[in-house]
Design goal:
It contains 2 helices and no strands. It has one domain (4-78). By secondary structure, the protein is mainly α.
Length: 79
Amino acid sequence: MLTSKGRRYRRVQFRRLIQVVQKEYRARGVHMREQKIERNLLEKVGAAFEAKKQLLAQRALLSKQSERTQHFEASYKKQ
């Protein structure tokens, strides 16, 4: 979302998520600061993003290799 309204929406939703997680911790009897919850959520999302990025890069590499193999085999059969 590139609009200011979209960025604000995501920011508000993230704050609401922090509040929900904080309430869950309170229900369990644990007091956690908002900053710590925010950091943990961002680390978790960052790790998931990085893992997905690496998976996509590996898939792209495999598809490129298979395309080259197919091209080689097609060219090799012509000779």
